[in-house]
Structure formats: structure tokens, C-alpha cells
Amino acid sequence: MAYEPVEDADFDTGVLIVGAGQAAVQLATTLRDAGYDQPITIVGDEPHLPYQRPPLSKGYLLGDQSLGGLEFRSSEFFSDSGIKVLMGERVESARRTSIGGVVQTATGRTITCDRLVLAVGASARRLPLRGVDADGVITLRVAADAERLGARLAVADDVVVIGGGFIGLEVAASAKKLGRRVTVLEAAPQLMGRAVGAETSAYYVGATRRRGIAVMLDARIVGIRTGDNGEVSGVDLADGTMIPAQLIALGVGVAPRVELAHQLGLHVDNGIVVDDHSLASDGWTIAIGDCANLPSPYPIDPLLTRVRLESVNNAVEQANHAAQTILGAPVPYRSVPWFWSDQGDLKLQIAGLSSGHDQVVVRGDPGADRVAFLYLREGRLIAADCVNSPADFAAVRRALAGDVRVDPRRLADTSQKLAVVLHDAVSA
Ligand SMILES: Cc1cc2nc3c(=O)[nH]c(=O)nc-3n(C[C@H](O)[C@H](O)[C@H](O)COP(=O)(O)OP(=O)(O)OC[C@H]3O[C@@H](n4cnc5c(N)ncnc54)[C@H](O)[C@@H]3O)c2cc1C
């Protein structure tokens, strides 16, 4: 559905949500569902109606899905719900007033509001590398990036992915599916090191290589080489090796967007620091989604008290809780985090946070690409990384809401359903 621009010039609104992604749409719809009857406005700097980001590295990149098909809601839905959506409009400044807040957009529009919400997400990091600005070095965060990446993928024979995190590995799997020669260069000694345990990571190194994707860990990149035409031609490593590439996908993490938070004088530290009601340091502005640094909603590891979670699940759950704050019935944000990453035929689903674990149980058969890595701390199950094992994932996710102390041998025993083992453990 085509996006219809909002004509009004300056205006006043109840809730103003800056950023038009997963968290923004969830908050607006939850507020309406809960009976909030004041005007709601979403302002986003991308030119399209809000859409789902996960397919950008998968179905959309492969040309199997259209952008329209990724939209969360139609423009009719937004207008019928009284949610004003301004797209292609960047909020450039924000400040508090005695009765609320006021923002100014790049088109010169002024919007005043009773409550300001920052749902501004994050932007893809680049690396300070020689040649990093060459044609053909592409990061992936928004639909426009996926379009550039897809156009290059169509003509490149050799693809190098710098960064072996979720997005890098998803792009690598998509490129392989299109028949490209693919190399993943990861500076750390393990893949997906920020998100999964070492055992899961080691499995992924093998599984990715078995799928014909070269994986280099501890990679020391010294620069990106370009041809006479200014186009990328390869990656130079510290040992003198050159890996040819006509496309380099940079997947080296994201930086939370904190420009407006700085203007508002909010506490910023790896994101906009909020409390468990999503309130920033001024006690009024709300920050949700990838941009927010929050008290861990799953406080299992005493060393991990604050987190910034980059996931659909967090954007949705935190937005739902923030709606309660706005409605004046705050509920502390507690939840078992979960994530997923589809890399070709490998469906990874993660429940909980494995940081601080002291024991790992392998359930299933890594060789058959159907395995769950279960992470425990002091005898208590705290997380699971499940590969092509959706039933195990669902069982763990449910069980982690309670205190699960279970004999590791029972966890490893695939003759028994994990749901049954965990049900016995929780109620024991
Ligand atoms: C390629 C890709 C694949 C992913 N795959 C998965 C997956 O498989 N599973 C999973 O759980 N998560 C996945 N994610 C992560 C997930 O999409 C994010 O965690 C989620 O989108 C966060 O939502 P958000 O609303 O916080 O931020 P975003 O969705 O990034 O939305 C923020 C929006 O705010 C806009 N904005 C920022 N500043 C301003 C401003 N000043 N004025 C106006 N607009 C502004 C931004 O342009 C953006 O459109 C993926 C992300 C990417 C990029």
C-alpha cells in the first residue's frame, strides 16, 4: 500500500514516537488496544511504512519477499486507529518544555507532545579500515541497504563477509544459496561470540564450513583493496594473503542512535540508559528497543545487570511494558529473552542468556544438524541454543520462567521429550 504523506504543518500530539520500527509500531498499537484515547504520532526517517527488518538478510535479500509484504500494518490500519505516521521525516532536535516535549523535523515541522518516546534503533557500524568506503563495501540495516546488497550479489562471484555475527552469517548463507563463493572473516576466536556459548559457536564453525562457506577466525584484516575503477577487489590480511571479493558485506555490529538523547541531556552509556519501566534518566522520556540500555529483564547472571538487547522479542516486550508506564500502571519489565537467526537450512533459536554459565549439556546430534546446547549455572538451567529443534526451544523458553534444577543426564537423554523432563523439574 502506498504511503500517503501527512499534510499538516506543525501540530500537537499525545504520545510522540520518534523512530518507526518494530518497537514504535508495537507501542502505538498496544496503547490503542489498551484504550489510550489521545493522539499518537510516529515519525520515521525511512521513506516506507514501518516494516520488519529480519527478512532483509534472508527472503528479501534473495528476492523472495517484497517490501510491501514486510509492512507491519497498512496505511488504512494506521488512519483507522488514529495513529498518525510521518515517514521520510527525520527528527533533528528534541527538548523538554514545562508541559511536555517539542521536536523539530528536517522539513522544519514542529511537533509538541505530552510524552516523548525514543524508538530510534541503531545504525550499522563501519570499521576504520583502508578502503572501507570503496564501492561494493555494504552494511545492512535498512531496506535500502538490502537493495544495494542484492544488486551487488547478483553480479559478484566472490563475496567476503566481515563479521561472523547473526547478520553476517545470514548474509553469507543467502549468498551461498545464490551460488557465490563466500568467505566469512571474524576477528574473534568464535562465531556469534556476543550471543551464543562457545559450544554452539564451535558447532556453527563446522556446520557453516560443511555448507561450503569458508570461515576464518582470528582474522586480521589490514585493508580493503580496490581496482582502478574504485570498486572493491579484495581483502588484505596481515599475513599477506589477499581474498578476492567483488562484494564485501560488513556485519560488525551496530551503534545505538543516541543523538537526540544527548540533546535531551539524558544519561547515555552503550544506549539510552533506562529503568525497568523504560524511563530515561529525566524520569519522563521513554526509550525502547535497540537504542535502550536497560536493567536485565532476566536477572540470572549477577555480573550482567544491564543489557542492550537487539531483537524483535525485546522490541515487542519492552514496548508492551512501556505502554503500561504511559498508561500510569507501570509494571517492571521482566521476561525471558529469546532470539532467532535463520542461516540457510540452520534455524537457530535461543532462549535465555547463557552468560555466566558453568556447565553445558549437548542434547541431540550435532552431526545431523539437530541439536540443543543447554547452559546451566550452579545446577540451574539458564539458557539454550537450539538448532533445528523447535520443540526443545519451546520447552526451554516456557520452563525458564521458573527455577529449573535438573539432572544434566536427563537433559541429554533424547529418549525423553525435553518438555516432559523440564515439566518434572519445575514442579519437583
Ligand atoms: C538484517 C537484519 C536482520 C535481523 N534479523 C533478526 C532476527 O532474525 N531475529 C531478531 O530477533 N532480530 C533480528 N534483527 C534485529 C531486529 O530487527 C531489531 O532488533 C529490531 O528491528 C529493533 O527494533 P527498533 O524499533 O528498536 O529499531 P528499528 O527497527 O531499527 O527502528 C528504528 C527506526 O527509527 C528510525 N530513526 C532513527 N532516528 C530517527 C530520527 N531522528 N528521526 C526519525 N526516525 C529515526 C530508523 O531509521 C529506523 O527506521 C535483524 C536486524 C537486521 C538489520
What is the count of DSSP helices, taking H or I runs of 4+ residues? 11
Q: Which distinct ligands sit in these coordinates?
A: flavin-adenine dinucleotide
Quote the average pLDDT: 96
Terminal Cα span: 53 Å
What is the count of distinct domains?
A: 3
Query: Rg from C-alpha positions?
Result: 23 Å
The CATH architecture term of the largest domain is 3-Layer(bba) Sandwich
* Low-confidence blocks of residues: none
General form: globular
* Largest pleated sheet: 7 strands, mixed
Strand percent estimate? 25-35%
Quaternary state of the chains: single chain
Summarize the structure.
The chain is an alpha/beta fold.
Describe this structure in words.
- It is a single chain.
- The chain is of the alpha/beta class and 428 residues long.
- The chain folds into three domains: 11-123 and 255-326, FAD/NAD(P)-binding domain; 126-252, FAD/NAD(P)-binding domain, CATH 3.50.50.60; 357-427, Enolase-like, domain 1 (2-Layer Sandwich).
- Helix content is 24%, strand content 29%.
- Strands 1, 2, 3, 4, 5, 6 and 18 form a seven-stranded mixed sheet that branches. A five-stranded parallel sheet has the order 8-15-9-10-11. It has a five-stranded antiparallel sheet with strand order 21-22-25-24-23.
- The longest helix has 15 residues, at 312-326.
- The chain is globular and about 60 Å long.
- The chain starts with 10 loop residues before the first strand and ends with a helix.
- The model has no long low-confidence stretch (mean pLDDT 96).
- Flavin-adenine dinucleotide binds next to helix 1, helix 8 and strand 21.
- The site of flavin-adenine dinucleotide has 35 residues, from helix 1, helix 8 and strand 21.
